[in-house]
Amino acid sequence: MPKLTGILICVPAYGHQICMETADSLFRLGQFLAVSNIPNHLCYMGAADLEAVRNVHLTMWYDGQPKVSHLLVVDTDMEFEPVMIRNMLAFDKPLIGSYYAKRQHFVEADGQTLG
User: Fold this and answer.
1) Gap between the Cα atoms of 11 and 77, Å rounded
2) CA angle 94-96-102, nearest 5°?
3) 19-23, 44-48, 76-80, 107-111: lowest mean pLDDT where?
4) What percent of the chain stands above pLDDT 90?
5) Rounded to whole angstroms, how far apart are CA atoms 44 and 50?
C-alpha cells in the first residue's frame, strides 16, 4: 500500500450540476483534510457520459499526478461524512469503493414512465 501523499478528489458532473448535500460533504471533507495535514486537490468535469468522465479523471490522476497516492471519486448526488473517508484511508487496502445500483426508468406499455 502506498504511503498517503495526497488525495485527488474528482467530481464527474452531468451538466455541471451538484446537489447541495454533496457540496456540503465536499466542504466538510476539505476541512477535515486540511486539519489532518493531508494534501488534496479538487477537480471536476461535466459531460453527458459520466462513465467516460470517470475514466478521464482516472487517467488524469494516474498519468498526470504521479506524486498523489490516492484518488476519490464523488458523484454529484452523494452525501457522506468525512469520517467515512478517514476510515477508508485507515483500511489500508489498494482499492476501496462503494457499489450502488444504476438508476433505471421503467416504461409501461402505454408509454408512461415510472420511477
Assistant:
1) 10
2) 140
3) 107-111
4) 56
5) 11
